[in-house]
Write a structure and sequence with these properties.
TIM Barrel; O16G_dom_2; 25 helices; transferase; Amylosucrase; alpha/beta; six-stranded antiparallel beta sheet; Oligo-1,6-glucosidase, domain 2; 668 residues; eight-stranded parallel beta barrel; globular; single chain; binds alpha-D-glucopyranose; 25 strands
């Protein structure tokens, strides 16, 4: 049906005279349809599956063709790859389990399902949390108790021996690390999570492979076809030219971005660790090969792919090789292919870059959701300074995203904290960004006088003075120091700071994402240095092993000791999650800052479908007050309640916020 339709369009050449590319795209599709028919015929797939696919193909084909033509049209083998890409997509749809096709059909009709207030995420390393995938299935009840509906499992595919960058050096995308289980275990887990109402998020680590991936091994053996999968150079000439404009991401691992390979006697582009080889997406064979891996991962039952290191996937001489327009076009092409072949699948952007660049990845046509690194960094900034000016300045013009997308709001993840706020935002309120970053690094490594934080430097670059911070939520917020000083007061403040930060990520608009361990206030784990595969990477300090004994403490009534601290953190977070889910005002992303003139607090309104909640949070250890007039005019009327504590208030009085207190207010 699509064939004849296209034929009549293609014959109508005059109408296309002004749009030559559109004409070429339709002609190409017409030529490719018989190849596609062969795929369908060979698979014996029934007519209705074919029709569904073809309708989507017809809808998205031109957009896809346009991008692929732009990226690869000048290649002599363009048409060959176009055919491969198309048959790969059809094969993915045919092979997709029917249960996932059901999910696809629902999501086509409800594309922004993730904007619901009911969506709350968690992230974990399988080995550190539950040893393996089999045991992880047994912990689904735990996720439900906490209130999670979205689970990001850190990379669990086969990795190289020794250091594997926490799973980000993948040697085979089609097999699970045998220590964790098998692909069948993964599929079973995905099924059970889905039955429990929990969506599964996995990484798509597509910027690089491990140096022992099959493609890299073939390259090492001298196979020229596979050497073109990577950036490999015989001498320093070209690498040195690139280096002129590149940043260094892991300067303590190795200077520069290239690694000498003894076997090949050549230089290899390695943005991250020396064993992570950057893929050459200038080569359409790489685009197509990774597409196959993407579909394979999707078909295990994944709802969202976290696009790892998106900023780096396209390189061009003379640029920073980050956030290039071609990188966006490429992700858009992958997104179109997902719309065609695995339409329930969504993309999450991992671009931990300048805020102006972060948002460029976020659109229904590219990545529907994205980490919010600016909010993350500025919440920590506010905690250190007890001032919310930079936070509100940034939120005032950076929070809004396009319709049909959402932020993923988090405090800690498996990576470091980098101070990626905008220098101009800082300058606008009289802050010198360079000095301020230095202050924040001093503060969070505990060197600043009076600091409550116990962070560890990550990737300190002596030349540029650049540094990032590692540490768990609890250790950075002061709990570790409080325990060390055995000070009830410091412990109390530490707990309050942790919950204060959670109260913002759970309410500000978007998907809150908890790094598991936060719910217990897990402290830094300094033991990682004993493992040679981890010792060189301080991020392991905030990747502690889950201690299931904590669960026993939940039923423990003892009111003192660290047991009750843990219980309190867990119960408070659990309750905050439950309350979030009960407030329709928290769906979507509409957020309005309310200015009160008090630099220590942040106040904002959330509204959705006639529902209205005002969030207020005090970032200082001093009592702060908000004039009732601000709250009344912001929509709270004369009487209102804090939905977290059920306490009621009147706007005739000033609202008093205790040290680090947060409230979620609703008119009564
Ligand atoms: C991403 C990951 C990080 C990893 C890097 C290289 O930034 O989050 O953990 O080191 O990519 O894969
Ligand atoms: C990515 C992020 C960077 C992070 C690194 C891993 O490159 O952009 O901020 O530090 O991965 O640590």
């Amino acid at each position: 049906m699509i064939g004849s339709n296209l034929q009549s369009k293609a014959n109508n050449g005059a109408a296309h005279a002004s749009q030559p590319l559109r004409f070429e795209s339709e002609l190409s599709l017409k030529r490719l349809m018989p190849r596609l028919d062969a795929v369908w015929d060979a698979s014996g797939a029934d007519e209705s599956l074919r029709t569904e696919f073809n309708l989507r193909l017809e809808e998205y084909w031109y957009a896809l063709f346009e991008i692929l033509h732009e990226l690869y049209g000048s290649r002599y083998d363009f048409f060959y790859h176009l055919e491969q890409i198309l048959t790969t997509a059809a094969t993915a749809w045919i092979n997709r389990p029917e249960s996932l096709r059901e999910v696809d059909r629902h999501r086509i009709n409800e594309p922004d399902w993730f904007a619901s207030e009911k969506v709350v995420g968690g992230a974990l390393y399988v080995d550190l949390f539950s040893e393996n995938l089999g045991r992880l299935r047994e912990t689904i009840g735990y996720f439900k108790e906490l209130g999670l509906t979205y689970l990001h499992l850190m990379p669990l595919f086969a990795v190289r021996p020794g250091d594997n960058d926490g799973g980000y050096a993948i040697s085979n995308y089609r097999s699970v690390d045998p220590r964790l289980g098998t692909i069948d275990d993964l599929k079973l887990l995905a099924d059970e999570l889905r039955a429990a109402g929990i969506t599964l998020v996995l990484d798509f680590v597509f910027n690089h492979t491990s140096d022992d991936h099959q493609w890299a091994k073939l390259a090492q053996s001298g196979d020229r076809e596979f050497q073109q999968y990577y950036y490999i150079f015989p001498d320093r000439e070209v690498p040195d030219q690139y280096e002129q404009t590149l940043r260094e991401i892991f300067p303590t691992v190795r200077r520069g971005n290239f690694t000498w390979h003894d076997g090949m006697q050549q230089w290899v582009w390695t943005t991250f660790n020396s064993f992570q080889w950057d893929l050459n997406y200038g080569n359409p064979a790489v685009f197509r090969a990774m597409l196959e891996e993407m579909f394979f991962i999707a078909d295990t039952g994944v709802d969202m792919l976290r696009l790892d290191a998106v900023a780096f996937i396209w390189k061009r001489m003379g640029t920073s090789c980050e956030n290039l327009p071609e990188a966006h076009r490429m992700i858009q092409a992958y997104n179109l292919l997902a719309r065609i072949a695995t339409p329930g699948l969504l993309f999450k952007s991992e671009a931990i870059v300048h805020p102006d660049d972060v948002v460029k990845y976020v659109s229904p046509e590219e990545c529907q959701i994205s980490y919010n690194p600016t909010l993350m960094a500025l919440l920590w900034e506010s905690l250190a300074t007890r001032q919310t000016r930079l936070l509100t300045r940034s939120l005032s013009h950076r929070h809004k995203l396009p319709d049909g997308t959402a932020w993923v709001n988090y405090l800690r993840c498996h990576d470091d904290i980098g101070w990626t706020f905008d220098d101009a935002d800082a300058a606008a309120i009289g802050i010198n960004a360079f000095d301020h970053r230095k202050f924040l690094n001093d503060f969070y490594t505990g060197q600043f006088e009076g600091s409550f934080a116990r962070g560890v430097p990550f990737q300190e670059n002596v030349e540029t003075g650049d540094m990032r911070i590692a540490g768990t939520l609890a250790s950075l917020a002061g709990l570790e120091l409080g325990i060390e000083h055995d000070s009830e007061e410091e412990k109390e403040l530490g707990i309050r700071r942790m919950l204060l930060l959670q109260s913002i990520t759970l309410s500000i608009g978007g998907i809150p994402l908890i790094y598991l361990g936060e719910e217990w206030g897990m402290l830094n784990d300094y033991e990682f240095v004993k493992d040679p595969a981890k010792a060189g990477d301080t991020r392991w300090v905030h990747r502690p092993k889950m201690q299931w004994e904590f669960l026993d403490e939940l039923d423990d009534n003892i009111e003192s000791g660290s047991g009750s601290i843990r219980t309190r953190i867990y119960r408070s977070l659990q309750r905050m999650i439950a309350v979030r889910k009960s407030q329709p005002a928290f769906a979507g992303q509409a957020m309005k800052l309310i200015s009160t003139g008090n630099p220590h607090i942040v106040v904002f309104a959330r509204m959705n479908a006639g529902h209205h909640v005002i969030v207020a949070a005090n970032f200082s250890e001093e009592i702060q007050t908000i004039d009732g007039n601000y709250l009344r005019t912001a929509g709270l009327g004369r009487f209102f309640e804090d939905v977290l504590t059920d306490r009621t208030y009147g706007t005739s009085d000033a609202l008093q916020l205790d040290p680090y207190q947060y409230v979620w207010l609703r008119r009564v």
